[in-house]
Write a sequence for this structure.
């Protein structure tokens, strides 16, 4: 087994953190607000309508209702802010995805590691004209990348591009280094 | 030893009925006995309906199990088409499984003691997937199993390997575990705690039994001693319990790893071990993702550790003892890192590791503190005694101590294009892998981490994610970029891309 030990100049490497990212669709913000309200709305309704006053004094009930309302609103606002931060970029060799508000995450998924690509959209996403792209890797769920809030044409174009890359790679296995073939 | 695989459908060995029967019964016992014991229902059932009826019922159950095993055997068939293994099976529903050689991550042969006279083994092949799926042939002749394994793990068809199969492969013994190493592995093994957890549900019925018999004991010397010196008696019982657990742990280690040998055979590593149940596992060097050097807290005291080789579709960490991961037990502190170099020559597990940011200590202390407070709260609530809440006073120093221990344990290093990430609390688990094995890279910053200019780097391998917490943000990004370079650039291009012509 041969191995090399070349020094690597880290400053001259292609840097993922300096790539200009494309924000996801602007409609992703209202979608996230509606989704958050859709989750917290039923809770608020239950608290508002349950005849708690039989056992709980009215001020406590009002405080509980206010609390649930506050949490719901905060969730909606945070979702909206988080949605505005979502962005992605496609480089020659990888896909970059940025997400998160309090905990900010930037994930880089090399194209040569993608096993399979899938686009999907739920009814609410379709109502807002949004689509989700999932890239599956050999790393199990922790290695998968989900790009949510894309416009359908963007998601389709990305999917086509990635599938073509996967096909080209699978057709020419000799071109890829042996350890890069995930199921070699 | 190796025999040819016939064309067309084949059956399991007739002796496999015995194997299926024993396994079915054992599984039934394992699933149901803890329930009966735990609830103390077993005694109640026997008292209620009488011992004869219970025995008759058991006999009927055994008969049904034997019949089911026979039917399962009759309906089970398999064939090998080039490099695809086809299996048809099912008691009530017919299932067909297809497995191509390229998808197989792991093949193991297992031989329980009662199958040894017939030279029958259990052949199982695991494939990567969200959940590791397994295909097994429960009971085929050893020779057939060996040739199946060769055909499937080399990816060559049987016709091609022809003469290669006839000669014995040139195997070289890399490691053999002695009695001392085996015993120390048992002592150091964390399975002591697992055993304790397993025994917990049995304790209550035992206590009940003890109470019933306490009256009959009456006025013996022992009872007087316990009454006179309760603390001494308590410590003696505790020490006895710990000694018993350790004994059991050593016995388990002997059963599982007796006669452990690791041999290399081309680009494959084969390990054989087991006192009663002979197991044989194969690891393909090409599919190796990461090597872990693990020392439990006791293992550090005893100067012992073990290596875990991880492949695709990594099993959860807790499965180390399940016998599925490729584990090399009972290694001395110098042996472990030396053996790791058998897998990847440049791997140097020894040496200095860089610490992460000191603020990590506080972040961990806060987490430990919150967890401890929750425990104190739950205990206080369930004991319904508010003075338990006083224990909360001890939480901050304890949490700080744990945070500090954690910070001391976490370390990292990148050397010769290999990353080394160490973690633990009292024990140490050092994971080493080539950067080129990364599947995805993630840089993550919480609000606190942004304040201190640090980040958590997560490198996902096909065997699972490896996290490097609280390192300098610039350093995390640089390491992420370097990892991506190794994954994405064709080999030989690294120097050019890193600015060196």
């Amino acid at each position: 087994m041969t191995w090399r030990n070349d020094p690597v100049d880290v400053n001259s490497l292609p840097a993922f953190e300096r790539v200009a990212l494309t924000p996801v669709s602007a409609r992703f913000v209202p979608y996230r607000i509606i989704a958050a309200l859709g989750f917290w709305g039923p809770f608020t309704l239950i608290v508002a309508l349950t005849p708690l006053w039989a056992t709980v004094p009215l001020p406590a009930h009002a405080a509980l209702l206010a609390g649930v309302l506050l949490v719901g609103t905060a969730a909606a606002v945070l979702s909206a802010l988080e949605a505005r931060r979502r962005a992605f970029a496609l480089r020659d060799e990888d896909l970059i995805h940025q997400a998160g508000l309090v905990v900010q995450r930037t994930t880089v998924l090399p194209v040569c590691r993608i096993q399979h690509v899938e686009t999907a959209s739920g009814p609410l996403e379709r109502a807002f004209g949004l689509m989700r792209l999932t890239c599956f890797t050999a790393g199990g769920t922790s290695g998968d990348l989900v790009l949510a809030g894309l416009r359908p044409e963007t998601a389709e174009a990305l999917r086509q591009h990635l599938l073509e890359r996967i096909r080209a790679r699978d057709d020419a296995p000799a071109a890829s280094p042996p350890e890069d073939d995930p199921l070699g | 030893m190796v025999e040819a695989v016939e064309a067309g459908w084949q059956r399991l060995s007739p002796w496999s009925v015995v194997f299926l029967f024993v396994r079915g019964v054992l599984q039934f016992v394992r699933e149901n006995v803890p329930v009966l014991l735990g609830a103390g229902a077993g005694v109640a059932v026997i008292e209620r309906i009488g011992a004869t009826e219970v025995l008759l019922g058991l006999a009927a159950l055994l008969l049904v199990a034997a019949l089911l095993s026979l039917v399962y055997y009759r309906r089970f068939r398999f064939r090998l088409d080039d490099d695809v293994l086809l299996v048809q099976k099912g008691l009530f529903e017919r299932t067909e499984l297809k497995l191509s050689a390229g998808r197989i991550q792991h093949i193991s042969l297992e031989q329980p003691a009662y199958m040894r006279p017939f030279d029958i083994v259990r052949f199982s092949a695991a494939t990567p997937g969200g959940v590791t799926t397994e295909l097994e042939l429960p009971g085929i002749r050893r020779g057939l199993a060996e040739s199946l394994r060769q055909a499937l793990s080399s990816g060559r068809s049987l016709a091609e390997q022809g003469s290669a199969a006839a000669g014995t492969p040139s195997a070289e013994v890399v490691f053999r575990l002695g009695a001392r190493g085996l015993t120390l592995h048992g002592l150091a093994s964390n399975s002591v705690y697992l055993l304790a957890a397993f025994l917990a549900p049995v304790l209550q019925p035992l206590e009940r039994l003890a109470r019933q018999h306490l009256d009959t004991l009456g006025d013996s010397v022992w009872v007087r001693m316990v009454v006179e010196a309760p603390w001494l008696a308590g410590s003696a019982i505790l020490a006895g319990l710990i000694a018993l657990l350790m004994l059991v742990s050593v016995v388990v280690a002997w059963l599982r790893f007796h006669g452990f040998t690791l041999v290399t055979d081309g680009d494959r590593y084969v390990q054989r071990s087991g006192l009663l149940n002979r197991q044989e596992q194969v690891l393909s060097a090409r599919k190796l993702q990461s090597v872990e050097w693990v020392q439990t807290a006791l293992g550090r005291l005893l100067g012992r550790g073990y290596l875990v080789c991880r492949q695709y579709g990594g099993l959860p960490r807790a499965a180390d003892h399940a016998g599925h991961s490729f584990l090399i037990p009972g290694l001395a502190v110098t042996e472990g890192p030396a053996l790791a170099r058998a897998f990847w020559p440049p791997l140097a597990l020894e040496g200095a590791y860089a610490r992460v940011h000191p603020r990590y200590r506080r972040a961990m202390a806060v987490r430990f503190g919150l967890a401890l407070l929750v425990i104190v709260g739950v205990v206080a609530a369930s004991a319904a005694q508010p003075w338990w809440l006083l224990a909360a006073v001890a939480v901050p120093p304890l949490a700080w101590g744990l945070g500090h221990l954690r910070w001391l344990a976490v370390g990292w290093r990148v050397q010769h294009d290999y990353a080394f990430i160490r973690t633990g609390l009292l024990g140490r688990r050092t994971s080493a892998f080539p950067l080129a094995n990364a599947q995805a890279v993630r840089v993550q910053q919480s609000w606190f981490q942004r304040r201190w200019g640090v980040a958590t780097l997560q490198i996902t391998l096909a065997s699972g994610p490896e996290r490097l917490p609280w390192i300098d943000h610039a350093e995390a990004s640089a390491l992420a970029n370097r990892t991506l370079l190794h994954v994405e650039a064709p080999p030989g291009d690294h120097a050019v891309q890193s600015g060196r012509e």
Q: What stands out?
A: Chain B touches chain A through 50 residues (CB under 8 Å). The first strand of chain B starts at residue 77 and ends at 81.
